[in-house]
Amino acid sequence: MIINITPELAEICGIHAGDGYLRCRERNRGEIQICGSLEEENYYENHVIPLFNNFFNLNVKGKRFPNTYGFACYNKKVRDIFLGLGFPQGKKSDSVRVPEIILNGKNKELFCRFLRGIFDTDGNLSFRKSYAGINKFNMKYNQYPTIKISTVSKFLAEDIIRMLHELDILFFYFNHDTKKQNEKRKYIITISGIDGLEKWMELIGMKNPVKLSRYLVWKKFGFCPTNLTLKQREDILKGELDIYSIGSYVNG
Asked: What is the chain's alpha carbon radius of gyration, rounded to the nearest angstrom?
């Protein structure tokens, strides 16, 4: 199968690498399921599902599952494209990687769109206090940014590292082993500091409101409290919630 990789498909690949599941079913059918947290419903309804439908010319609908929100697709052509891209069937967490056609093409736009997809689904943006120096604002408020992508697939981590090198984005990479039984080693990539965050936003960006709202609050106020819901951050941005009146959240 000849697959034409576009920026849209590259982002879909990143989304699938983070939140997707591929299963081959009886009678030559396939199932693609992509789901995130219930808080990410707007991200799926307003971005992921339209992106998927527009690219594949489908009309899949979002739905609430027991603890997640997303969609399932049973189209054979879509299944064959995902298989052709090298995505594994069944549990993929420790074997998924960036499709070779994206990685070996060295097209920076495709790198950026894949990274956006994987970050929006499997990444995190957080802010912490900084006790370096004597700046009281930095010591009081969560203002120092860190982007983090964590995976149990060493292959995916190494592929992401190759793309970040090509994009000239500085990062830190380390492994984390937990003492919990049956929990696999995690491969963690972080991009820290204001320069790193702004370069990420310039080249890659974010579409998931759960993550983007943190950035927008930080951009507007110079810090972003921890432990807030998406709704609270949206209310802060609309001026309906005073960021300085939320007590312990500010100092979380």
From this structure: 19
